Amino acid sequence: MLVTAVPATASGLLDVNASSITLKVNGSRALVEYRSEGRDRHVLVWGAINARTPESGLPQVRFKHDYSGGLKLEHRAMWKSFKDQCRPYDGPPLVYLVAACKAPDGSYWALQSWQRNLPHRGWAPWTGDQRAWELRVSHWNGELAHLELYADWAFHGDAHDIFGRMTYGGIPVHGFATTASGAPTDSYGRSLYIDTFGSAYGPGWKRETSIVFRKPSGSFCYSFWPTHDISLPGRPARPAGNGAKYRISVVGPGVTPDVTAETRDLGAYDPQVETQQDVLFMHVIAGDKFCATQR
Q1: How large a percentage of the chain has pLDDT more than 70?
Q2: Domain locations in the chain as residue ranges
Q3: 173: closest CA among 69, 58, 54?
């Protein structure tokens, strides 16, 4: 990945496989310094806060970046004299946290890092992109996106499943289109990355797959089945990935922090519990026709 260009996948992505990471803030700008590929990096970030909701009709907010440390912005090495005004962080708990602070205006900046592109079905990574630890920056005030995750069964107990939704400011988070493989094609769309713990894939957390939040409800549903995943070399047979618990990780809307949610598996099929969960399921999916067929 070339760090001289702003990554196109999301506005908060700065780089991959960074080390010695620091965060400074001065006024409305942040300076992120780190080491990558044997070089020291000095990246200025500014120009965005929070997120817009899909019904706004406006482009989603995006950061501006200067990977030259100020040479492009003001024709001088601003990073050398950048005065840090960061105050101790006192905001909400953050996952995958590297650094965070409170700006003089009361807003928050944060850096998070996690492996977003792991292979599906618990398969071991075989490329550098899959192994990469992404470094992501966020800037916000107020509440974070709200992420819900619940466990259930599908098709009268034939499969374990999970469902949930994502909202921001009480409004569903969703995009408007996807690629043939299901990846969002616009800046509002958000994929959720599903991990399973203690499954047939082995001990610990393993990546199951990634899907998108559905339009317009901001909900999702997913069932665990044996597969021959076409994204894996040779399309190997993989067992159902249901485990003892589940986690979903999501890049925050706009330039807000990335968020996660966890829930435990409900165990062997129980018709009485299923009836209770069905009521919750129908409320969460908010009339989504695809998910309604999974009961």
Answers
A1: 96
A2: 13-140, 146-292
A3: 54
